[in-house]
Amino acid sequence: MITTQIPAFLADLEARFNEAMISNDVARIAACTTEDWLLVTPEAGPVPRSRILEVVGSGRLTHATMTKLATHAAVVGDMAWVTGRGQNTGTFDGAPIQADEYITDVYRRVGDTWLCMLTHLTPAR
Length: 125
Fold this sequence. Notes:
Layout: H1 8-23, H2 26-30, E1 33-41, E2 45-48, H3 49-58, E3 61-76, E4 79-92, E5 95-110, E6 113-123
Parallel strand pairs: 1-6
Antiparallel strand pairs: 1-2, 3-4, 4-5, 5-6
Pfam family, one: DUF4440
Protein name: Nuclear transport factor 2 family protein
InterPro entries: DUF4440, NTF2-like_dom_sf
């Protein structure tokens, strides 16, 4: 069932993921994602986890701020998703970047933890 009442554990996961991204620490980001995590962006389409971690690890991509206001969520067995509106700032290849977008994160329970397996970004108009 889709709900606008975001379960606390999903809100915590989203906060942890945001904090990992603004840390620009590859190990922290990796700890929030599955091995097969995919980031779908309007600019590049599907980008595998290995590529994102490589670009962050090299310093080519940094995040200074990242916020997300979750508005919808669902939990079905070992799968969950959260959709909301997010903003972030940072740099790419030394140039400032900022985004205002709708974000959907899909999580999968792996053992006793939940990891993000898909992040889909859509620009807010």
